[in-house]
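Notes for week 9. Today we move from apo structures to complexes. The key idea is that a small molecule is not decoration. When we ask for a structure prediction with fe (ii) ion present, the ligand SMILES becomes part of the input, just like the chain. The input block below holds both the sequence and the ligand string. Read it once before you look at the output, and try to guess where the molecule might sit.
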Amino acid sequence: MTNEPSSPVCYGAGADDSYMGYASRDEILAALNELLEAERAGARVALASRKSMQDVRFSELMRIVRADEARWCAMLSRQIRRLGALPSRRTGAFYGRAMDIDDPRERTIFLNRGQSWVVRKLDALMPRVRDEVLHANLRKMAEKHRTNIDLAEAVIQEAG
Ligand SMILES: [Fe+2]
């Protein structure tokens, strides 16, 4: 035994994740909070749209999207707390921008663009997350977003 650590492996659980190519705790928390604010915005857009959209195809789509966005808000909040931090209570600026669009089809197109942004964020984040539980949750979130993007795309085409 010497006092000098011979390799990063010797640091064990204390190893700095950023040294290993993984995102640091702060980076992960920042990304999760950004996603949480985006999902909260999405949930609020879908809820308001569901109430106001007359076309049943749009309102049914918004019901599904709203349920999923709320689910991811809960998951992200849980994961942030698990990391010992407080979840952001803010709503992403996306909400106001989406609600400025009155036409149901145009708003849905805008919402889908937001959902694609979330998928890109998740795809960039996942390879940098070592934590298996968090990784599995983010993967589910990305998969379901892809499903809902396709579903919305079908409604957009149909209503065009
Ligand atoms: Fe979303």
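Residues 4-8 have pLDDT under 50 and may be disordered.
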